[in-house]
Write a structure and sequence with these properties.
Elements (H helix, E strand, L loop, with lengths): L1 H18 L7 E3 L3 E8 L4 E10 L7 E6 L4 E4 L10 E9 L6 E11 L5 E11 L3
Length: about 130
Amino acid sequence: MKRFLSFSLMSLIMILPLMAEEPKAEIKFDKVIHNFGKFDEANAIMTCSFTFTNTGNAPLIVTQCVASCGCTVPIYPDKPIAPGKKGVIKVTYNGKGRMTGQFKKIITVMTNAKTKLTRLCVEGEMVETK
């Protein structure tokens, strides 16, 4: 019986550190969709910002942002975001030379967070200049 208790105690002591969760970053956006609404093709370049917070307990690194179309360009932080701090992804939509009408563009954000991928969306309607 003593051997069994000793073995159980030793096993528990060895397993507990393995069960401890390693520090991880986590990303939480204030919004994931931005609607530019209606805008004139004469002013076809629109910009918005997506603010996020590192709600985890390790530095957050945005490794890449990829837009679904070349008309949409994301700019993201190149330095790690400390736990509890905020960062911004700036997105510019350029409708020059594009057809008027409604559009929806997706930006895929890749990070080292628990949630590796997050999709952001910009949408709106570009109308003809009268």
